[in-house]
Amino acid sequence: MKVKEVMVAPPVCCSRDTNLGIAADIMWRENCGILPITNSDNGITGVVTDRDMFIALATRNRLAGDLTVGEVTSGRVFSCKPDDDIHTALAMMAKHAVRRLPVVNNLNQVVGMLSMDDIAREAQMGDRPELSCNDVVHYFRGTCEPRGAGAVHKKLAA
């Protein structure tokens, strides 16, 4: 099974200059928790998540309209291609502990979004032997492993 069979398209995107208030409104209206950040050629330059936005607003003394997504994103992007095998995409999600991937073409332009929700829904339908619920659970566990600041938090709590 290919990523293009499961991804959601067209994706909803924003620019680095989009303020957090507008980004939150887009996420609310589109029922999503991530926005690819694109340039004028629709090339991906980053992603911003609802978590990125919440942490930024909770730790800075600024209003959502005064912060841009470019100020709160790490700039790291993990993506996949439409013709990638779904298991390759799942392995990338597990490796980098992300639950959503922008899908980009050969010009690095965003053409869709792939999420664990989309993959789980496809596996649950059960009519595709190449993707089982067990596959999804196996890879999903990888996205839930404690990393980074979580390890620091455990050390401080000890």
At a glance:
The chain is 42% helix and 14% strand. The chain is of the alpha+beta class and 158 residues long. Strand 1 and strand 2 (44-49) form a beta hairpin.
Strand content: 5-15%
Alpha-beta content class: alpha+beta
Q: Which value, in Å, is the CA radius of gyration?
A: 17 Å
General form: globular
Number of helices: 7
| Mean pLDDT, all residues | 87
Strand order of the largest sheet: 1-2
**Low-confidence regions:** none
**SSE string, helix = H, strand = E?**
HEEHHHEEHHH
> What is the first-to-last residue Cα distance?
45 Å
Instruction: State the helical fraction.
Output: 40-55%
The biggest beta sheet is recorded as: 2 strands, antiparallel
Number of DSSP strands?
4
Task: Explain the overall architecture.
The protein has 158 residues and is α+β, with helices and mostly antiparallel strands. Helix content is 42%, strand content 14%. The protein has 7 helices and 4 strands, in the order αββαααββααα. The chain has helices at 20-30, 50-59, 69-72, 86-96, 116-125, 133-143, 149-157; strands at residues 34-38, 44-49, 100-104, 110-115. The strands form 2 sheets. The chain has a two-stranded antiparallel sheet with strand order 1-2. A two-stranded antiparallel sheet has the order 3-4. α5 (116-125) packs antiparallel against α6 (133-143). The model has no long low-confidence stretch (mean pLDDT 87).
Record keyword descriptors for this entry.
158 residues; alpha+beta; two-stranded antiparallel sheet; 42% helix; globular
